[in-house]
Amino acid sequence: MSSFWTIWISVISLGSILGCYLLLRWCLSNKTGVEEGKEMSHEFDGIVEINNPLPQWWTYLFILTMVWGVVYFILYPGLGSWQGLWGWKSSNQGILTIEEGKKATAEAKEQGLVVQYDREMEHAKETYGPIFAKYAQQDIETLAKDPEANKVGQRLFLQNCSQCHGSDARGGKGFPNLTDNDWLHGGTPADIKKTIMEGRQGTMPAWGATLGEQGVKEVVAYALSLSGRQVDQSLADKGQARFAICAACHGQDGKGNIAMGAPNLTDNIWLYGGTERAVTETVMNGRHGVMPVWKDILGEEKIHVISAYVYSLSHTE
């Protein structure tokens, strides 16, 4: 935090307490010239104002809040760079990587600092760790049939995966639908878990410069025809000859390659859209998709439960 903001926060915070004290002191002083308990000159509709002091309970409560404010600023961080006598803070600020977070947590523990976030994470680990350990002993197919485990997996999914795949796991443009049986890298329990643990990177090269505009039209026509779409047959016939450069990944029959994450072009399921325009853009400019690595963030036991939940979405029976 810069010196400006340190001074600004300190002045505003302490100034507010001082202002409240001065206001209370002014209200407690009798500046009317009329003895307390006597009638004043203000009258309206037969009602005469009496010069009464502030209620004592209200005054004491007001003083208590000011005292608490001062004590709080002494014990806790709040005045600029002041860290407080108790060494408490809500979290380790300025953390950019998982490694930095782990290092900061270890250092805070060695120094005896009270980091609220770290304490809550430790408490959560102690409370829920045994539950995840129990689930980890079961294979994913068995766990996928456990309603309670699926509820846990769903909550983890909503917290960590729904931003890309949607709360219903049906995905969106560029993000796979997890409720069907179309899997770029395989849909077995082991494949799903590996995908979440280690992440995936899928790259579709840009073929515009190689094929040219006309060549792209021909390849797109043939690719769309593989899934039974109506296309210009003359373009599709020419595209079939050019498809050799695509077959290296998608196979001669266009059914894809799980080992490479190359999609099946015959099922009419399109990750980036199946319109002629969308497929043309894919072939012309290429695509690059990234599934993040989650093993260092969630850990294997939580990923095991998420994998079971994801597996259950496409295996409802």
UniProtKB/TrEMBL annotation:
GO cellular component: plasma membrane
Residues given in the record as heme c 1 binding sites: 161, 164-165, 291
Domain Cytochrome c: 148-227, 234-314
Annotated compartments: Cell inner membrane
Pfam family, one: FixP_N
Assembly notes: Component of the cbb3-type cytochrome c oxidase.
GO-annotated biological processes: oxidative phosphorylation; proton transmembrane transport
InterPro entries attached to this UniProt entry: CcoP_N (IPR032858), CcoP_N_sf (IPR038414), Cyt_c-like_dom (IPR009056), Cyt_c-like_dom_sf (IPR036909), Cyt_C_IC (IPR008168), Cyt_c_oxidase_cbb3_su3 (IPR004678), Cytochrome_c_Oxidase_Subunit (IPR050597)
CC cofactor: heme c
This protein's name: Cbb3-type cytochrome c oxidase subunit
Role noted for this protein: C-type cytochrome. Part of the cbb3-type cytochrome c oxidase complex.
Binding, heme c 2: 204, 246, 249-250
Main location: membrane
Coiled coil feature spans: none
Keywords: Cell inner membrane, Cell membrane, Electron transport, Heme, Hydrogen ion transport, Ion transport, Iron, Membrane, Metal-binding, Oxidoreductase, Repeat, Respiratory chain, Transmembrane, Transmembrane helix, Transport
Pathway listed: Energy metabolism; oxidative phosphorylation
Cofactor descriptive note: Binds 2 heme C groups per subunit.
Similarity section: Belongs to the CcoP / FixP family.
Protein's UniProt keywords contain Cell membrane: yes
Name of the gene this protein is made from: ccoP
Annotated TM spans: 7-24, 57-79
PROSITE patterns xref list: CYTC
Molecular functions per Gene Ontology: electron transfer activity; heme binding; iron ion binding; oxidoreductase activity
